[in-house]
Amino acid sequence: MPAIADLPPMLQERVVCSIAAAAQYQVPANVVLAVAETEGGRPGQWVQNTNGTHDVGPMQFNTSYLGTLARYGITTGDVAASGCYPYQLAAWRLALHLQNDAGDVWQRAANYHSRTPQYNAIYRGKLLAAGARWGAWLDKHFKTVDVDGKPRAAGQVVAQSAAPSGQASQPAPAARPQGQSRQVRQVQAAYVPRLVAVSERSE
After folding, report:
1. C-beta separation of 107 from 15 below 8 A
2. What are the φ and ψ backbone dihedral angles of 149, each rounded to 5 degrees?
3. Rounded to a whole number, what is the distance in angstroms from the first to the last CA of the chain?
4. Domain spans, the chain
5. How far apart are CA 180 and CA 173, in angstroms?
6. DSSP structure class, residue 193
7. DSSP symbol at 103
8. Beta partners for 192?
9. Cβ–Cβ under 8 Å, residues 86 and 62
10. Which residues contact 52 (CB under 8 A, 6 or more apart)?
11. Is the pLDDT of residue 173 over 50?
């Protein structure tokens, strides 16, 4: 993947793992990338919060969620590790927020950080900006297809309605060319995401 290889080494793992985790859990890749950028964590990193919890690892997974993860044998070491597993855990958690929480998609994604309205709004603003940047980057380096299967030119913006509050938009099946992997993401159009499949540009 030349587009990935051209990134600084410290970003390569973040981008590859975010896109793979987004595809696995049907979460918009630009949302996962936006969260990863905003959290800005590193493998092995522990950041103490004022409420006594810690944010751990590359996706700064909060220790308050570790009780749920422990039922599946997942430890803080797993969350703090390098590699793609922490991104998969974060995408799983984002998928739950997007499917079950109220608000627009960015407010639901911002619940990853905080459900407190004041802090959620600040984080949501950061996600909007980062999500737009990552959406543009993905459009530049990958072929994208709208959820209805229609090809889009890079940078073309076609607005769609967002899912009503409390409802996650369901991914529609997308055609997959033979011999190419399918990675799923949503692109931001006037900050209204829509699901598309992406594959590396052949140009």
Report:
1. no
2. 90, 0
3. 12
4. 2-200
5. 15
6. E
7. S
8. 189
9. no
10. none
11. no
Where is 54: in which H helix or E strand? strand 54-56
User: Which residue, 182, 181, 10, 25, is CA-closest to 89?
Assistant: 25
**Do 144 and 136 meet the contact criterion of CB atoms below 8 Å apart?**
no
Bridge partners of 34, per DSSP, are none
* pLDDT attached to residue 151: 54
Q: Which amino acid is at 99?
A: Q
Structure pTM? 0.73
Q: Is the pLDDT reported for residue 110 higher than 70?
A: yes
| Amino acid occupying residue 62 | N
Q: Are 98 and 105 in contact (CB under 8 A)?
A: yes
Alpha helices in 71-116 (DSSP H): 76-80, 85-100, 105-110
Q: Which residue type occupies 28?
A: P
Rg (CA), the chain: 16
- Phi and psi at residue 2, in whole multiples of 5°? -55, -35
Burial category of 94 from C-beta neighbours within 10 Å (exposed 0-12, middle 13-18, buried 19 and up): buried
